[in-house]
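Let us practice reading a record.
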Amino acid sequence: MQKLLSVAIPCFNSQDYVRRAIDSLLPGKDKVEVLVVDDGSTDGTADIALEYVSKYPDAVRLISKENGGHGDAVMTGLKNATGLYYRVLDSDDWLDESSLLKLLDVLEEMRDPSKAADLVITNYVYEKVNEGRSCAIDYRKNLPIGRLFGWDEVGKFATGSYILMHSATYRTELARNSGMDLPKHTFYVDHLFVCYPMIHVEKMYYLDVDLYRYFIGREDQSVNEKVMLSRMDQQLKVNRLMLYALQVDQITNPAKKEYLYYYTEIVTLATVSFLLRLGTKEDAAQMESFLDEIKEKRPVYYNWIMSRPFYRHPMRPLRRMPHWMSYPLYRLAYKIARRHFGFN
């Protein structure tokens, strides 16, 4: 019988933590396909994966490839997935056991096509291990719980509660046929992983469990603030793909279009905030140039941003307030948000 869930674990020199990621999936037994995608590691990652392949040949597969970056590893996992549903687990993160088993119970019911969702949404938890605290992100205020629903029942998302890769489990066939092609050697493509298939999503299911445990704290982690600031070119690349490659303006469902506008705005807000966080006149000028670019290339979207109320869509003040006032305000707001939501 077809496995319920394929989970890709993109790995690059992950020998110090990949065991925890794999171990967290083993309680799924014969219902879960574990795809360890070794993206050209030079350490013992592949050897560790082979240990699991030998011990659990019906559950764990090792896929070795030349280094192509996180997105390329995600796409390789998707191409090789045989499960009914597909999700990604980064090699330094893990899934909660009881939540995984509940997810599998839901997916078992979805073997019946009449009960199948295109997207199953679960909660995720920022695990700031070095600080001894965590922060759970849920969707209880936005989505119906424990049943199928469509876009007409999706509520307005609170700041910080948008759907990330960590909360998304897609029907494999839909994700594979979505036109998604994540760029190689580029970080932050998880936003594209969410958005490409979402354009085709009609039926959703929200399972209110804290499934994904998102480790925060390694100094070399891609979401470490210093690392992100040093990779602004890649943040801008992904942001531009979201703005210009996704064809969101052609979506006819108003609620779906609104959500994808909102998600793109959140990523754009992050880009703007990081450029301001760098603090130089050159970076501020690049930020203003980027907003001018959006105004020229996506005028409908730009006007949408500028017409939204400030308390939910805070980009407008950058174009309406003096720089001496708006720039420091944004830097302060970023620090507050970072502390409140627990991201790195």
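A brief commentary: The longest strand covers residues 204-216.
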